[in-house]
Amino acid sequence: MAISHRLGSLSNSGWDGLTLEKTSKMKHLSHRFCIAPMMDWTDRHCRMFHRQLSRHALLYTEMVTAEAVIHGKRERLLGFSSREHPIALQLGGAEPQRLAEAASIGEAFGYDEINLNVGCPSDRVQEGRFGACLMAEPDLVAGCVAAMQARVEIPVTVKCRIGIDDQDAEADFQRFIETVAEAGCRTFIVHARKAWLRGLSPKENREVPPLDYARVYRLKAARPDLEIIVNGGIETLEACDIHLQHVDGVMLGRAAYHDPYVLAEVDRRYFDSAAAVPSRADALTGMLEYAEAHIAHGGRLSNITRHVLGLYHGRPRGRLFRRHLSERAVRPDAGVDVLKDALALAEGGAHMERQGAAAAE
């Protein structure tokens, strides 16, 4: 079944109105390397930037509630560029039929996967009765998964924790996985920490509960038929290599955001790509046309540049790069020249000289 979607509302999308044409469903997505869904971070501009560094990493949206998808401004919430594929839509919710409707809408927008969030510990999420609190209700989660799968042809996956609050026995975790797997879920992304729903902030829940990767490894050993992806506290590709000896995939979040150039090696390392590893300058240059279109349709340059500040992390001119963007990109009239000047500062002018020489030829 062909799915067409016109990317409209360009003042919000920052893209050029390209028609997204999806002529066949993806039968299988590689979860070998994923970039985590993060609220207020992994918006379409962030994903577009990450795609300059890796063509194959699986990207995830921020979590969007089923009710927002059904009743909200869908293009603003769900619109994306066809260049972002492969990309998964992460949903939050606890009502099976509403999630099924939202999943169907996401499929029609062209997403390659629907992911149910059963791991977020924030108070706001708990008040809506979704996120990590649902780990206490595996039958409900199973019902949500079954309802979504009945409505869409693309994969439905679950992102969860290893437990919540005093539900810390390994048997509880295994029971949750078994129940949801019986409903047809084959892929689980597991943040290898439990979540404390009372007493810890979302930030503390990312840092205070100890990591227990071994529990995730044991899950994979016990259920080799399931696809298990590990998440939480992974900061380097070397650490990814170790995890991949035990599970099917890895998911990086904040490490990839704060030091995005780590993604440049992903395609060659994990997807056997023969393509040249993109340079930092390549990644930023690849965003110029996108940024220009975004600005032309009413967007702000800072919507994009806030995601690229870490590109020269640890490099000699990285501070100059960050300072220039932080001071200039926030101005109402900031244009792509700000990005070009930041690139020249970071590269010591050498990149722009090379471009000028190539143009002269």
Give your account of this protein's structure.
There is one protein chain. The protein is of the alpha/beta class. It folds into 2 domains: 3-8 and 25-270, Aldolase class I (TIM Barrel); 280-360, Four Helix Bundle (Hemerythrin (Met), subunit A). Helix content is 43%, strand content 13%. The protein contains 19 helices and 11 strands. It has helices at 10-13, 44-53, 66-71, 74-78, 96-109, 123-127, 138-151, 170-182, 202-205, 213-222, 237-243, 254-258, 266-270, 280-285, 288-296, 302-305, 318-328, 336-346, 350-360, and strands at 3-6, 19-22, 33-35, 59-60, 64-65, 87-92, 113-118, 156-161, 187-191, 227-231, 249-252. Strands 3, 4, 5, 6, 7, 8, 9, 10 and 11 form a 9-stranded parallel β-sheet that branches. It is globular. The chain starts with a strand and ends with a helix. The relative contact order is 0.12. Mean pLDDT is 88; it is low at 1-26 and 356-361.
